[in-house]
Design brief:
The protein is α/β, with parallel strands linked by helices and about 500 residues long. It contains 21 helices and eleven strands. An eight-stranded parallel β-sheet has the order 3-4-5-6-7-8-9-10, sandwiched between helices. A three-stranded antiparallel β-sheet has the order 1-11-2, with no helix packed on it. Helix 9 links the parallel strand 4 and strand 5. The protein is globular, with a radius of gyration of 22 Å.
């Protein structure tokens, strides 16, 4: 834990903030860091959304909660963001906020859009993590012929509902993290592989991919890679150069450590599992004081490794975004003055600096946290990444379900545009429509190419008519609504700093 006793007294369960608003108006934490208090602008957004729900909901004959669970409520939330933060960063039509049919029309338009989320996690109920919940009830709905399947070592809450039923996500990659001590492991590699197998068998198509987590330097870590290759056949690898992300690890490492890492890369190459996903950035505000090996979270080890191993793909999770859950104002000021964002710009420089094309930027937590603290910062982030990495090297991920259903993040990406003044000042190209070329690449096309799943974009792709698709259609037809809950473990209590 990175929280001291004083900090623990100032936190509260995230689900106590039960306003029903469809996108976060304060930051929640997964327990690794102290969440920032709600900013004045976020408070204004929250008040504006609730006022719109009362006023416009009444006109539509809906309660506040019913309005906020509707497409009109989501549109009204983005309009409130524009009004508070300025700049009309999010595209939203007034008719969407007042007319349920107009909002529904937009939802129908995007319903079949292919969304591939490469960073998903099963939510845990508390800090005593011991796996995922039993999935049998879902299995019986999807495939009555499967029989009994026991996941006694797993723990699973409403992951499938939030991600697959309450969002437009079609394919996802389930991930985890290493730990120095066994009891702290979020989910082991066998659990990841078993969850993938179960969901895909139940669905009747390839709906879930899975990582195998690597722990360089820990005893037996290379042997675990060999075992994963032989027995689990992961879709890609996941590593944290900090080592254990929940503690000051004994095992930090660098991607370009030839003695430690290159034997592992040789194994990955030989096995043909060539996507190496690496957590970078996302440090708490006082990281220099609480994280001994914080420099290992930087991206300065990526370029050499990528150049030395051109046939591996290095997918940098969180895009190396350094600060986590702190005020966006200093970052915006930095960007407006220099055109750069800490560590993100360093990552975006790598393709040109090292002459490589095998480095990718993933958006989990980074895009979502920027979008709800300051949309202009989210626009700047996208501009830096697309300009430096190329639109074909930016990967969609949400880090859900820590932040509830990923639908609000999907909608934020569909609606966001880089303001014209920012485009002119920094040479950024427009992101375009929610289903245009750039965003379609980010949402799905780039990941499909990395994972050899290009056939999933075909009109007759199996996911369009599988068992999961059928049960979701029944779910929607029955009028089920999103919970609008955000599942971060804790939030800052009150508004105090």
């Amino acid at each position: 834990m990175w929280l001291n006793d004083k900090q623990r007294k100032r936190i509260a369960p995230a689900d106590e903030n039960a306003t029903g608003i469809p996108l976060p108006t304060r930051i929640v934490s997964n327990g690794e860091y102290m969440p920032m208090p709600q900013t004045p602008d976020q408070a204004r957004v929250e008040n504006a959304i609730l006022a719109a729900a009362d006023e416009q909901g009444a006109k539509l004959g809906l309660s506040r909660r019913a309005f906020l669970r509707s497409g009109a409520g989501l549109a009204a939330s983005f309009m409130a963001m524009n009004r508070v933060f300025g700049g009309d960063v999010f595209s939203v039509a007034h008719a969407e906020t007042m007319d349920l049919a107009a909002a529904a029309e937009r939802s129908v338009h995007f319903a079949d859009q292919l969304i591939v989320d490469v960073q998903l996690h099963f939510i845990r109920d508390d800090y005593a993590w011991d796996g995922i919940l039993h999935l049998g009830e879902y299995a019986k709905q999807w495939n009555a012929d499967m029989g009994d399947i026991s996941f006694d070592t797993f723990k699973f809450d409403n992951f499938m509902k939030e991600v697959w039923f309450d969002s437009d996500t079609k394919i996802g990659l389930i991930s985890a993290a290493p730990a120095d001590h066994g009891p702290n492991v979020i989910m082991n590699n066998d659990g990841l592989a078993s969850a993938r197998t179960f969901v895909n068998k139940a669905s009747g198509s390839r709906r879930m991919l899975s990582h195998a987590v690597i722990a360089p330097g820990q005893p037996g870590w290379l042997e675990e890679i060999d075992r994963a290759i032989e027995e689990l056949k992961p879709d890609s690898w996941k590593g944290y150069t900090l080592g254990d992300p929940f503690d000051n690890s004994q095992y930090p490492w660098r991607l370009d450590d030839e003695k430690l890492m290159y034997p592992a890369y040789e194994r990955m190459m030989k096995a043909g599992i060539r996507n190496v996903c690496i957590h970078k950035g996302l440090l708490p505000e006082d990281y220099e004081n609480v994280i001994t090996h914080w420099r290992h979270a930087m991206v300065d080890d990526v370029g050499k490794a990528a150049k030395d191993w051109p046939d591996l793909n290095f997918i940098i999770y969180h895009s190396g975004f350094r600060p986590l859950m702190t005020s966006p104002d200093p970052l915006l000021a930095q960007f407006e003055e220099t055109g750069r964002i800490d560590w993100v710009s360093d990552l975006a420089d790598i393709p040109a600096e090292y002459g490589v094309s095998n480095v990718y930027a993933e958006l989990g937590t980074t895009f979502g946290s920027c979008a709800v603290t300051h949309p202009r910062l989210a626009a700047a982030l996208m501009g830096v990444l697309v300009k430096g990495m190329g639109a074909d090297h930016v990967i969609w991920g949400t880090d859900s379900v820590w932040y509830g259903s990923p639908q609000w993040q999907i909608e934020a990406m569909r609606r966001i545009e880089i303001p014209e003044d920012m485009q002119k000042a920094h040479g950024f190209a427009a992101l375009g429509a929610g289903d245009g070329e750039v965003k379609s690449r980010i949402f799905a096309g780039n990941s499909l190419g990395l994972y050899g799943m290009e056939d999933m974009a075909a009109p007759d792709a199996a996911w369009r008519t599988d068992a999961l698709s059928a049960i979701k259609a029944k779910y929607v037809a029955a009028g089920h609504e999103p919970s609008n809950e955000f599942h971060g473990f804790i939030r800052r209590a009150g508004g105090e700093a």
